């Protein structure tokens, strides 16, 4: 878009003209002015961008206005710990009774997906002493420490006692959410501790619906989840209505298809889903054709 020459009030597309020698002739009528007025896209002194996450489309807007620097908040550093003596990392050999560690790497990916920073501390054995030592290190280096596993009431679930042992105040332990009831949240001198259940769907869902908004909160921004509306392709029923439940679904066009889902250990169900629907407390049945909001994942 070049500046209009003085006295001109219209631009004719070059393909609507022909040039012979030094003479240009219009061969088609030009119905439009094809003029962008100064300040038409952004008015002087208008609000350019809302406070929030700097996304790729914002970079062009800033550059268009000649802005080469903006003040931003550095995302909090998230420490990630996977608890469980039975865990092995992918690529290692499994002995009897061992499983691969999916939660630790999954949490790293979830933090990275929202543009966050993380430090992965790997797997810690199910002993209180080992967990306390690692928590001390992570708390000294990170703003939020997220742990998976060890938050229930089993003989080898030491997360609650270990977090208390490093001097953190337990703010809550258990939430009325399915999957993910035994979630734990604690704080010590501005460092936060989040204990997530070991079942991988619980870990994934609680990060999406609770941990991610908290990270944004610490950055001083409110980031609402992306919701799409659709109609249930089949009826959904459940027996336990005491908690809010998040179910994995596949949204195709305006149809919402519940995916095969066996519970909070069924991680593969998420690979077939592109969203979560919320079922409120007290709701036992969502009929086929119900209009539902789908939270994008």
Describe the structure.
This protein has 297 residues and is an alpha/beta fold. It has three domains: 1-35, no CATH class; 77-218, MoaB/Mog-like domain (Molybdenum Cofactor Biosythetic Enzyme, Chain A); 227-296, Beta Barrel (Beta-clip), CATH 2.40.340.10. The protein is 22% helix and 28% strand. It is built from six helices and 18 strands. It has helices at 56-64, 103-113, 128-141, 159-165, 200-218, 268-271; strands spanning 17-20, 23-26, 77-83, 87-88, 99-100, 117-124, 144-148, 169-173, 177-178, 184-188, 191-196, 227-232, 236-237, 244-252, 255-258, 275-279, 285-286, 291-296. The chain has a six-stranded mixed β-sheet with strand order 6-3-7-11-10-8, with helices on both faces. Helix 2 runs parallel beside helix 5 (200-218) and helix 3 packs across helix 4 (159-165).
Rg, nearest Å:
27 Å
CATH class of the largest domain equals: Alpha Beta
The separation of the N and C termini measures 39 Å
Q: Provide the low-confidence segments as ranges.
A: none
What is the name of the CATH architecture of the largest domain? 3-Layer(aba) Sandwich
Mean pLDDT: 95
């Amino acid at each position: 878009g070049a500046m209009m020459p003085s006295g001109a009030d219209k631009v004719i597309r070059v393909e609507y003209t022909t040039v012979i020698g030094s003479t240009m002739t219009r061969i088609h009528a030009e119905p439009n002015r094809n003029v962008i007025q100064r300040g038409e896209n952004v008015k002087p002194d208008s609000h350019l961008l809302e406070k929030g996450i700097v996304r790729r489309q914002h970079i062009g807007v800033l550059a268009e206005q000649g802005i080469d620097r903006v003040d931003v908040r550095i995302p909090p550093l998230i420490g990630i710990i996977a608890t469980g003596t039975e865990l092995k990392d992918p690529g290692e050999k499994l002995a009897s009774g061992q499983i691969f560690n999916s939660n630790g790497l999954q949490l790293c990916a979830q933090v990275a997906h929202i543009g966050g920073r993380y430090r992965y501390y790997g797997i810690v054995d199910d002993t209180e002493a080992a967990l306390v030592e690692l928590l001390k290190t992570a708390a000294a280096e990170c703003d939020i420490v997220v742990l998976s596993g060890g938050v229930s009431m089993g003989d080898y679930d030491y997360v609650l006692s270990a977090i208390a042992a490093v001097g953190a105040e337990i703010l809550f332990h258990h939430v009325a959410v399915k999957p993910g009831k035994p979630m734990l949240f604690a704080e010590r001198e501005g460092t936060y501790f989040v204990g997530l259940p070991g079942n991988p769907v619980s870990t994934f869902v609680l990060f999406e619906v609770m941990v991610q908004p908290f990270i944004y909160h610490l950055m001083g921004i409110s980031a609402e989840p992306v919701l799409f509306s659709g109609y249930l392709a089949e009826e959904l029923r459940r027996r336990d209505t005491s908690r809010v439940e998040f179910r994995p679904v596949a949204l195709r066009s305006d149809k919402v298809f519940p995916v095969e889902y066996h519970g909070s250990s069924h991680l593969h169900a998420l690979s077939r889903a592109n969203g979560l629907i919320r079922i409120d407390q007290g709701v036992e049945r969502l009929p086929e054709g119900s209009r539902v909001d789908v939270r994008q994942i």
